[in-house]
Amino acid sequence: MLHEFITENRARIIATCRANISSRPAPRVTDEELEHGVPLFLDQLVETLRLALDVNPAIGKSATRHGNDLLYRGFTIAQVVNDYGGICQSITQLADELAACISPWEFSILNRCLDEAIADAVTEYGRLREHEGTERLGFLAHELRNLLNSAILAFEVLKTGSVGVGGSTGAVLGRSLAGLRNLIDGELADVRLNAGIQQREQVVVCEFIQDVEVAAAMEANARGLQLTVAGVGKEVEVHVDRQILGSVVANLLHNAFKFTRTSGRVVLRVHATADRVLIDIEDECGGLPPGQAEELFRPFEQQGADRTGLGLGLAICYRGMESNGGELRVVDRPGIGCVFTADLPRHIRPAN
To answer: Are the C-beta atoms of residues 172 and 154 closer than 8 Å to each other?
Structure first.
């Protein structure tokens, strides 16, 4: 019976499916992509076959969640279909290798379950993509308008000569221009990630941090915050897309400044091990509500009282780190703040 075959060979089917899709183009395959969809689909397929049901409703629910997860992770609609097609291919491939017999009736149910899963996953993916696009465009237009209006008003006041550039009106102009820069920088990074465009190069980390520090110090000063920077030696390098990494660190610093209490401190600290480079951004936001750390990297999530921006910055940071072969983590310090860590593989130059 097919359901017995799948149960007995569950681990091999999952491993075969991963191997079958591992050669596809970027973005690279990750365990997260298959964590929910493949194992859960197999379990529900076994139940459907065992109970002789045409379609198990639970399959549609898990496929809907799979479509949601894949959109959140930045995968394409073709890859949603590819995942489920890989399941069918892996089952039939392993059955052929082990000379296991799949009856026409069982194969028919397998295909119907697969069709149902693909349809539900694609429908949810499309629904969320359309909603995200509309909502995002509206938020972007709203934020751009507000920042431009603030900049124009501040500039008009400065033109009268009644106030100095170094005063509060000049600070409003500076914050507005910095906000416009951050929005555009985030959009450019997202476009590059969605298009799969990467231009990796060897980057000397201390020089990269020095460049980041210039803009960060200006924003910290404009907000009345203290910025402390601790770098590393010139021998520490990473192999990354410099523009995307720059957008990641700039976004993390912007969020740290945005949510840190007045007169508080933000720390940018870099340290390296034999094979990793860790960039920490430590803020004084007061900490996160219980259970909210895992939600920070979802699109349109905003946890603080300041709701300016699109709520996309951390989601883009998460994807940007993955595209550079690294990862993004957060540690909550209740009552104090958060520490975001951009963790990258260290590039070691070959010995001469």
So the answer is: yes
